């Protein structure tokens, strides 16, 4: 499995810890996956889908290389109060990301830093659904 895939899988697995108990307010019921699905294909709500994006490299002396991986986290909610559910889920995702800036993946490898670069929502356009997206930048050492 590639590092990109391993990092995304580790993030999706980490989001499964969002179970409604402190410090989280939403229960994902383990609906966190390392693949892409669009809101019209989703059956279980709330849910999160994590996918890798583009990657940049920074080459430094002594054959040291940083990888900067873009990761997209799509969050889906459905119901009467879908926008408020989505905002709570996005807050829980933020908390989980902040608590796991250094994330272990693929055995003994670790990310160096995970930063949130943007958060967007559908702003109620898809009612009774709500869709949010968090874009991340994951820095890790390329070997």
Kindly report the average pLDDT value.
95
> What is the strand content?
35-45%
Which fold name is given in CATH as the topology? STM4215-like
- Which residues sit in consecutive blocks of at least 5 with pLDDT less than 50? none
Cα-atom Rg, whole angstroms?
16 Å
Tell me the CATH architecture.
Answer: 2-Layer Sandwich
Number of separate helices? 2
Distance between the termini: 15 Å
Q: Strand-and-helix sequence, N→C?
A: HEEEHEEE
Strand order of the largest sheet: 1-2-3-6-5-4
Bulk shape: elongated
Number of discrete domains = 1
Query: How can the largest sheet be summarized?
Result: 6 strands, mixed
- Helical proportion? 10-25%
CATH class call:
Alpha Beta
Question: Which secondary-structure class do the elements indicate?
Answer: alpha+beta
DSSP strand tally: 6
Entry summary:
The protein is 22% helix and 42% strand. It has 143 residues and is an alpha+beta fold.
Explain what this protein looks like in three dimensions.
It is a single chain. With 143 residues, the protein is α+β, with helices and mostly antiparallel strands. It has one domain (3-142): 2-Layer Sandwich (STM4215-like), CATH 3.30.2000. The chain has helices at 3-15, 82-99; strands spanning 32-33, 47-60, 64-78, 104-105, 109-121, 129-142. The chain has a 6-stranded mixed beta sheet with strand order 1-2-3-6-5-4. The protein is elongated, with a radius of gyration of 16 Å. It starts with a helix and ends with a strand.
């Amino acid at each position: 499995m590639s590092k990109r895939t391993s990092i995304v899988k580790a993030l999706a697995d980490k989001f499964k810890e969002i179970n409604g108990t402190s410090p989280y307010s939403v229960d994902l019921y383990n609906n966190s996956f390392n693949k892409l699905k669009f809101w019209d294909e989703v059956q279980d709500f709330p849910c999160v889908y994590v996918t890798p994006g583009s990657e940049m490299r920074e080459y430094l002396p002594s054959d040291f290389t940083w990888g900067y991986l873009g990761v997209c986290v799509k969050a889906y909610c459905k119901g009467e109060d879908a926008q408020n559910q989505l905002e709570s889920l996005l807050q829980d995702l933020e908390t989980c990301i902040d608590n796991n800036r250094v994330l272990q993946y693929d055995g003994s490898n670790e990310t160096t830093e995970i930063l949130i670069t943007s958060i967007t929502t559908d702003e109620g356009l898809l009612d009774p659904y709500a869709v949010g997206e968090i874009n991340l930048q994951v820095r890790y050492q390329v070997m």
